[in-house]
Amino acid sequence: MQKPSLPKGTRDFGPVQMARRTYILDTIKETFQLFGYQQIETPAMENLSTLTGKYGDEGDQLLFKILNSGDFLKDVSSEDLEKGSGATLSKVSEKGLRYDLTVPFARYVVMNRNELTFPFKRYQIQPVWRADRPQKGRYREFYQCDADVVGTDSLVCEAEIVLMIRRVFDRLGLKDYSIKINNRKILTGIAEAIGEAGKEGPLCVAIDKLDKIGWEKVQEELIQRGFSQDSTVKLQPLVELGNDIFQKLETLKSFLKDSEVGQKGIAELEEVFEILSKMGENLDFVDFDVMLARGLSYYTGAIFEVKVHGVSIGSVSGGGRYDNLTGVFGLPGVSGVGFSFGVDRIYDVLDELKLFPAESQRGTQLLLVYFDASGKDYALSLLASLRKAGIKTEIYPDEAKIKKQLEFATKKEIPFVGICGDQEIKDQVLALKNLSTGEQEQLNLPEILKRLT
Amino acid sequence: MQKPSLPKGTRDFGPVQMARRTYILDTIKETFQLFGYQQIETPAMENLSTLTGKYGDEGDQLLFKILNSGDFLKDVSSEDLEKGSGATLSKVSEKGLRYDLTVPFARYVVMNRNELTFPFKRYQIQPVWRADRPQKGRYREFYQCDADVVGTDSLVCEAEIVLMIRRVFDRLGLKDYSIKINNRKILTGIAEAIGEAGKEGPLCVAIDKLDKIGWEKVQEELIQRGFSQDSTVKLQPLVELGNDIFQKLETLKSFLKDSEVGQKGIAELEEVFEILSKMGENLDFVDFDVMLARGLSYYTGAIFEVKVHGVSIGSVSGGGRYDNLTGVFGLPGVSGVGFSFGVDRIYDVLDELKLFPAESQRGTQLLLVYFDASGKDYALSLLASLRKAGIKTEIYPDEAKIKKQLEFATKKEIPFVGICGDQEIKDQVLALKNLSTGEQEQLNLPEILKRLT
Questions:
Q1: What span, in angstroms and rounded, lies between the C-alpha atoms of B9 and B1?
Q2: Would the annotation count B225 as a binding residue?
Q3: Taking every annotated instance into account, which residue ranges of this chain make up the domain Aminoacyl-transfer RNA synthetases class-II family profile (chains A, B) (predicted)?
C-alpha cells in the first residue's frame, strides 16, 4: 500500500490555517472593494505562447509546463531526442501554469478591451506556480494578491494605494511598518546627475547595501561596476539624506536641477503627497526612499515597497507604475499602477507578532452534548432555532461518553457546549458551559440566543 | 505581435461573473460553517502516484500531467520513443493537476490522521482540471465545492446534508427542486429480490430511462443486458410506485422482505427521516427515488442528487455515504458521507431564472464627479469620511468632462453619483443623484452617510 505524500514545495492548508488566511484575505478584499476595485479570475493554465518570453530566461525555466493530452510523443522523432529537451519542448507541451497574475491580467485586458470600462480597477487573488528550488518560506505554489488600475495616469491612484495599504495594516493590527515610496524617474535623474546616465540599475543594487556594508564599500563596488571615481563622490549628498521627507525633496530638487526627468519624478512624488494632504491624510508610515528600485526595468513612475519592522520577514508588499502593460500582446499605451500583498508573508508576520485575533480562527460556537438517546433527541430539537439565529452549532453525531464529546469541543476550539441532561430536558433549558472559564449556567433558548448572537 | 487567446475549455471570470460567483459561494460557505464544517485547501498539483488508478482508465487519460522541470527527456531513450507515450509517461512526468477534491481529501486525511479531530467535517472549494473534450457547459477547469464528514456512521449527517441543501437553495431563492434520496443497500436488495444479485449497476442504468423510453423498452433493455424475463416481471411493482414517501417505504418493505441488506437500507432511510422529524423539520423537497444510483461503485449507504425543475440544466448537486475513503492509501475503515454543489450549474440556473439579486453584483456605491480642479479637491476631501463609514466610494481619477464621468458610473453600474460643483462646495453638500431614478438631492455629509449605509 502506498504512503501518500505532497509534491515538493507544495502545502495543504488545514482548518486553522485556512481560517487565518481567510481573515487576512477578507480584510484585503474589503479594502479593495471600498476603493472601487473589482475581482477577476483567470485560468490556472495559459498557452505557453502567452507565458514565455515575459519573465526572462530564468523565468521561462521556472514555468511548469503541461504535457499535451493523448499521444504526446507523436511529433517527437529520435533526432528531436538527440537535440534535447529545449528543442523538443514545443512538440510535447503547449500550455503552462501561470507564473504570476500580471501577465494573465495583461492578456485579459487585451482580450476584453472593448467591453471593459476604463479606468479599470481590478484585483485578483489566486495561486501561481514556479518550479523554484523549494526552501524555507519559498513554495512552488503560492497565492498572489494583486490590485491594479489601468487606463489612467492620475496620481490619485498612487495616493489611494498608500491608503489601502494603511487600511489593511490598521485592520490587521500592524503598527510598526514603513511604506517606502520612490519614483523611477528620480533614479534615472540621479544616474544622469552623477554623469552615469542609464546606469541606475547597478547604482541601486550597490546603494541597497549601504546599511549592511557602509559607504566606503559601496563606493568600491560602484567603481568595480564601472562607475567613475568622480561619480561616486557626486553621490555623497544622497548618502547623507536625513529622515524628513520634505527635507529630502528639497535636497533632491537641487541635486537634480539639471535633470528634466529627475525633476519630473520629484514633481510626481510631491503631487502624491499633496493629494494625500487634500484627502485630509498625513504621511504616517510613508518613507521616501531615494534608492528604492524593485524590478526597475518594468516600472516607469512610482515604486512602492512595504516593510514590517522587528520581524524576521521584511518586505510584505510592493508595486509601482508602468507605462506599457499590454504592449507585448499588441496593445500599446496601457499605463497603470499596481501592487501586490504577499499573503504568505503577512501570515507569517501576524503569526510571529501573535496578531491573529481568536475570533479569526473560530468556527463552531456551540456544541450540543448529551448522555443518552433522550438527550440526543432534545439536542436535535434545538438545532434549527440556534442555527436560524445564525449561531454556528453542531451536535456530536454519535452517542458517546460525555468526556469524548467535551474533548471533541476542546480539540475543535469550540468555546461553548450546551449540555442536554435529564434536568435540562425537564426544565426546557440548556446547561451552557463556557469551556475556557468553566462557568456553567442553565439558560432557556431565548436566553441562549441572546448570549451567543 | 501575437494575439493572445485562452486555452481551449478554460474561462476568465470578469467582475460581474466573479461577483455573482462570490454571492453563490458565500451563501454555501456560510451554510457549511453554520453546520460546523471547516474549510481546507490542497495543492493544485499532486504526485501522479496519488492520482492515477483512482478514476478508472478513462479518468487517468483525462489527468493533466506536468512535465518534469529541467531536462525532462534525460531518461528517455529511442526505445522508449518506439514504445510510445504510455510507456514513456512516467519518465517525463511525476505530477498532475487534481481531477477532483475527493482524492486529495483522502490523501489529506491519511497524512494528517493523527492531528485531525474526528468526526472531521471539512469543506473545500477549489478548481479541478480534466482534459475532457470541451463542449457547452463542460470545461477543462471548473470549481468543485465539496463538503464531507468522515469518521462517523451517524445518520444525523445525512439529515444535515438535506438541511444544508435546503438552506442554500432557500437563500438563493430556488423554490422548485427535489432532493432525490436513495440508499445503495436498497438497490442491492432489489437486485437480490428479483434474483439478479450483484446486477444493481445495469439495473439502474436501464431503469433510469423509464421516464424517457417507457417500461416496455426498459424491460427489453434489461433482457438484452442478461436479465431473466422472470426478473423483469418481478420488478413491476417498483415501476408503479406512487409519489408518497411513506407509501413507497411500505411497498419496498414487503418487496425486500427476504433481503437483509435491503431491509437495512430501508431502516437507514427511515432513520434519516425520523431524525429530520425530531429536528422539527418536514420532508419538503425530499423525494425518495428508489432507482437513484450515481457512481454506484463508490457509495455504500445514502445517495443524494438535487435536481432543479423547469430549467435546461437538471442536476446541480449530489453525493452519498461511503465506507472506505482512504483504503487505497493504506488507512482502512474511514467512513463518511459527502456531497458537492455544482457551482457552474447553480450559476447557470440562477441566471436562467433571473434570480441574481441586483446587490449580488454591486460593487462601488458612490462615484464622486466634478467639473474642475476645485471640485476635484472638494471630492478628495470627502473620500475618507465616506469610506470610513463603509460606503464603497470612488473618485473619477482624471479631470474629464462630466458626461464621461457619468458614463463611467453607468457602465460600472454604480447606483449613485455625488456631484461636486461650485454651489455644492459653497453649501458644503453633495448633489446626490440616483442614476436609476434620476432623482437628485442636495445632502450634507451626515445625511449622505445616513442615506447610503
A1: 24
A2: no
A3: 1-350
B45 vs A7, A42, A49: nearest CB = A7
B34 to chain A: closest CA residue: A392
Q: Residue B151 is placed in which grid cell?
A: 469518521
Single pTM value for the model? 0.95
Place of cell 456605491: B365
B47 contacts chain A (CB < 8 A): yes
CB of B53 within 8 Å of any CB in chain A? no
| Nearest residue of B to residue A280, measured between CA atoms | B381
Q: Can you give the pLDDT at residue A118?
A: 95
Please state, in angstroms and rounded to a whole number, the distance separating the CA atoms of residues B379 and B370.
7
Q: Is A211 annotated as a binding residue?
A: no
- pLDDT tens column, B377-399: 999 999 999 999 999 999 999 99
The pLDDT of residue A145 is 97
Handedness of CA A421, A427, A432, A433 (dihedral sign): negative
pLDDT in tens, B400-427: 999 999 999 999 999 999 999 999 999 9
Question: Using one digit for the tens of pLDDT, what is the confidence trace for B191-228?
Answer: 999 999 999 888 888 887 887 888 899 999 999 999 99
How confident is the model over B256-285, as pLDDT tens digits?
Answer: 999 999 999 999 999 999 999 999 999 999
Q: Whole-angstrom Cα distance, residue B113 to residue B107?
A: 10
- Structural domains of chain B ordered from first start: 15-352 (3.30.930.10), 363-452 (3.40.50.800)
Of B5, B40, B89, which has the smallest distance from its Cβ to A13's Cβ?
Answer: B40
More confident residue, B232 or B78: B232
C-alpha distance from B72 to closest chain A C-alpha (Å): 6
- CA-based torsion, B11, B12, B15, B19: positive or negative: positive
Within the 256-285 window of chain B, which residues sit less than 8 Å (CB to CB) from chain A? 275, 278-281
Q: How far apart are CA A285 and CA B324, in angstroms?
A: 55
Q: Which three cell numbers stand for residue A78?
A: 529520435
Q: What is d(CA A175, CA A55) in angstroms, rounded to the nearest whole number?
A: 34
Whether the CB-CB separation of A309 and A288 falls below 8 Å is answered with no
The answer to whether B422 is annotated as binding is no
Residues 364 through 403 of chain B touching chain A, CB cutoff 8 Å: 364, 377, 380-381, 383-384, 387, 390, 392-395, 397-398
Question: Which residues make Cβ contacts (< 8 Å) with residue B304, sequence separation at least 6?
Answer: B161, B162, B165, B179, B180, B181, B294, B317, B318, B319, B320, B339
- Contact criterion met (CB below 8 Å) for B123 and B37: yes
